[in-house]
Amino acid sequence: MRRLGSKVRGWLPHGFGDAGFQLGLFVIAELCYETVRGLAEGADRRSEAFANAAAVIDIERATGTFF
């Protein structure tokens, strides 16, 4: 068991606390995304969202940052 623990610590250069923190940030980002997505779908504003996305893509293409 100690062997496994030392291997895992090698994969986590900043420790378990940092890994937990990053996982928490990911969960928060996912919850925010799902909330906003639900609000957009609930208000039947999908076409507006796609139009806004197309505008952002046009700006990114014009500035050479679209990839």
Low-confidence runs of at least 5 consecutive residues: none
Mean pLDDT score: 85
Q: Helicity, in percent?
A: over 70%
What's the total number of strands?
0
Q: Sketch the major β-sheet.
A: none
Question: Gyration radius, to the nearest Å?
Answer: 20 Å
How would you describe what is shown here?
The chain is mainly alpha-helical and 67 residues long. It has a domain at 22-67. Helices cover 84% and strands 0% of the residues. The chain contains three helices and no strands. The longest helix has 28 residues, at 15-42. It is elongated, with a radius of gyration of 20 Å.
Put the structure in a nutshell.
By secondary structure, the protein is mostly helical. It has a domain of 46 residues. It is built from three helices and no strands.
